[in-house]
Amino acid sequence: SSSSSSSNNTNNNGHIVLVDGMSFLFRAFYGFQARSDATKLINSKGEDVGVLHAYAHAMCALLESKPSHFAVCFDSKGKTFRHEMFVDYKANRPPTPEALIALIPKVSELVEAMAIETVKVSGVEADDIIGTLATRSVTEKGFKVSIASPDKDFCQLLNENVRMLRPGGGGQFSAFTLREFAKTHEELIQPEQFVDFLALVGDSSDNVPGVEGVGPKTARKLLNKYANVDAILEAAKNGEDEFEKLGTKKVREALKSEKGQKSAQLSRKLVEIRTKLSAPDVNGDLDAFRVTTPDDYGRKAMDCFERYELPSAADRWKAIHNIIL
């Protein structure tokens, strides 16, 4: 039909939305925790369904942009290769609250009932699943990719075909593209240098050390001059004239020191998102993620919405799939 090509977000090849599944759960959980009891969402069975309500609406908001393909990517339990590389990776994080852990199976069940594909790979973080699926989507299918996440680490994947959708207030998403990236970093660095940027400044949310004394301003200056961390460390070691003009003496000393050099190299490995995972679950046919009206015409979804008592999410989801029940 003539209309099918126009619904794919102006890109005839398709548009895939890749959702960082846990980040939305954390966001909804802490958002509702901060509310007073009077504004919590309690159903008739006495269950607190605020997080499920917020999660379902976030998925609906993303589906309303009419992507052709859609997947929610989850972290798997336990340690990953990053923990093996650096024992203190994410060690600064408080333990995940039991109440949040108890929500994970419910959120998975809700997402699957909404006819949304989920992806999880043992021992692998969602970032790397998203990195691999985003790269395959562009190179194999020519898709446009939207990564739905508040996590700045994904900036390293931005290009003409890949953008981020960052959750904002009121359930809205704002696009973060090459243009916004350039503005944020004063046009001094490219997205592919973002791993080098984090390797220098560190990332406190993941306990990535970076190099002591190197802040964002200095890191951008250095990366505007040198292609990557390796080139910066090389210039520091050799005491190149150009390098001696950048940053303070203290910063230059830190980058020359063995500690600084090692920390920068380790930090870079920790923050780099993998884009070529070999796991079968991320190497199947990408058409498995195609958005379709479910075979049961939404019965399973309605049962799930009814069980948790989420009428507004149910109505919104039905409208997306043109379901009249």
Task: Give the gist of this structure.
This protein is of the alpha/beta class. The protein has helices spanning 21-33, 50-63, 81-85, 98-113, 126-141, 178-184, 194-201, 216-225, 229-238, 241-244, 249-256, 258-271, 299-308, 311-320; strands at 15-20, 69-74, 117-120, 144-148, 162-167, 173-176.
Which residues sit in consecutive blocks of at least 5 with pLDDT less than 50? Answer: 1-10
Shape: elongated
Strand content: 5-15%
Compressed to H and E, one letter per element, the order equals EHHEHHEHEEEHHHHHHHHH
Helix content: 40-55%
- SS field, number of helical segments: 14
Overview of the molecule:
- This protein is α/β, with parallel strands linked by helices and 325 residues long.
- The protein is built from 14 helices and six strands.
- It has helices spanning 21-33, 50-63, 81-85, 98-113, 126-141, 178-184, 194-201, 216-225, 229-238, 241-244, 249-256, 258-271, 299-308, 311-320, and strands spanning 15-20, 69-74, 117-120, 144-148, 162-167, 173-176.
- It has a six-stranded mixed beta sheet, sandwiched between helices.
- Strand 5 and strand 6 (173-176) form a beta hairpin.
- Helix 7 (194-201) packs across helix 8 (216-225).
- The longest helix has 16 residues, at 98-113.
- It is elongated and about 70 Å long.
